[in-house]
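Entry: O-succinylbenzoic acid (OSB) synthetase
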Amino acid sequence: MKIGIDKYFKYALKFKKKFSNAAVSFNKKEFLIIKFNIDDRYYSFGEVCLSPDADPEDIIKILNSILPNIPEQTHDAAEYLKKIEIDDSLRYGLEQPLLYYLLKERKDFFNIIPDPRNINVNVIIDLEDIDEALKRIEKKVIEGYRVIKIKAGREDFDEDLKLLKRVDSLYGDSIVLRLDVNGKWNYHTAVERLSLLKNFNIEYIEDPADNLDDNLRLAKEQGLPVALDQTLPGFNYALDILENYDIKHIVVKPSIRFGIFNTIDLIDYARGQNKQIVISSAFETTIGKSVLTFISSFAPEYTAHGLDVYDMLEASFYDPLPPKNGKLNSIIPHLLKISKKYLIL
């Protein structure tokens, strides 16, 4: 198997309004969309998430320097891409044509390829006005959502608390809450504020403190369910934490953290530890989203993933995989037909 680059271009997803969490805010996401040639037999699309200062030409140079070194045997190629020291967004881009090839020619590579099924998803509520947040939550609950992820970490914690109390009074235990603080608090602030959250129906609190050691300490000492995302340094740390620490959930954005095959391995390892990997979107295009739904299908069916973000985008973005009733259909990526209807190519 040999992979080459046929063509590429820059593409942007624009938001209806600025998206904000405790760490960043932005109104668009940019990608490098790449058409790969596989053995002069297949074409596959992949995407690389671009940082604001990224130069697409520099990225293509890096990819072209790696592609000739990828082993021709598929198993060796997957292991090579899992371990090579590159930015994970580039890893994700390079792994997409390999995944396409495996699903077309080497389905035996996976022990079991999950059948397409409905995947539970959570809705995401960013740092918006409380009344607007409540309207959005009400709409999603009516639509059938039962897991609500709320971005916390406002400058005034009383505002976070006010929203949680309103949600609790309206819905009680009929919904499950996830809080994402994005590492906004230091350890002592986290201890103080987590003590005020113990009576809410919270599945986990994501990155309450601004570093890994303090989050592990909070999980051990405070007895609250802490999930890790941005404060997790790398893949090997994730394996160690799943085995040796009282962390039940790790949130992974494969398009910018770990890539495809490492994430599938992590899901399998977590299952053996009776823990969960929650797949989360970094606002991918249709191309990347199809891969995320495929990865999510390896997780236990009861896991709700953070993939319902596309109603935040401008109406010009057409989503061929829309969620319905709090669920999203998974799809085997090579079956998704990329056309002008989905993405302007």
